[in-house]
Amino acid sequence: MSTLTVRQYKHSDFSAVKKLFIEGCHEHASTTFYQALRLHQNWLLMILGFLLPLVTVGSILLAILDVVVVLVVLWLCGRKFFYGYATHALADDMKDIPKYYLQREGYNYWVVESDGEFVGMVAAIPSYLPGGEKNTELKRMFVDQSHRGKGIAKVLCRTVIEFARKKGCKAVILSTTTVQTSATNLYRSVGFRCTHTSYMTGFTQRLIRLQWIYFRYDVNNSK
Ligand SMILES: CC(C)(COP(=O)(O)OP(=O)(O)OC[C@H]1O[C@@H](n2cnc3c(N)ncnc32)[C@H](O)[C@@H]1OP(=O)(O)O)[C@@H](O)C(=O)NCCC(=O)NCCS
Asked: What is the 3-state secondary structure (H, E, C) of the chain?
């Protein structure tokens, strides 16, 4: 039985944190592509792309090329979103983790070790609803692939919930995408409830119908 230790982030964690973050973001590109393949709108696009050159110029080569182009575009859409997300975060809050997360009230960044080895991380930032309700937002939840399915993310969720409770927050909130099914299952299993979903508005996100999903956990829950 391995020993899990959750502790605050320190400078020497950066390369491991960055690697896990990049890998964790990039792995969703392929899931997004497979989800896009299940959409009727994209099948219609491929069928039209196949039939049009066949009927108009009688070229099977052009017909196949059209389908390949649609497939490549769909692949690139998912890739663009998740690779772009990682690049943006690394230039933003993750550029200087101690400055962003460890020196400000209501912020924090934890890593989790299994027998002394870095295996996961999570972060918290303060968040206020329009009426002034004080919440904590859970961010940067990632567990190394070889250590998944052992309850590590649940421990990290509880760390953030406990932090929010100590800070006098009403709830822990977060957003993720509907393609991240392990994450959405995780949050539900811990007791978060989905408050709403919304389709992303960018052109490439619309092509693959990417959706944000928002969760909330009321910290007075006993689960
Ligand atoms: C989501 C993630 C953090 C889960 O980490 P984990 O340590 O494997 O999760 P746990 O072992 O604590 O599992 C907790 C619950 O999550 C759900 N879950 C975890 N992995 C799952 C999977 N592959 N498929 C379906 N549900 C899954 C289950 O409901 C599980 O509860 P159960 O074991 O009682 O059924 C991990 O898969 C990950 O890092 N994914 C990539 C990055 C990511 O999507 N992060 C979320 C950003 S919002």
From this structure: CCCEEEEECCHHHHHHHHHHHHHHHHHHHHHHHHHHHCCHHHHHHHHHHHHHHHHHCCCHHHHHHHHHHHHHHHHHHHHHHHHHHHHHHHHCCCCCHHHHHHCCCCCEEEEEEECCEEEEEEEEEEEECCCCCEEEEEEEEEECHHHCCCCHHHHHHHHHHHHHHHCCCCEEEEEEECCCHHHHHHHHHHCCEEEEEEECCCHHHHHCCCEEEEEEEECCCCC
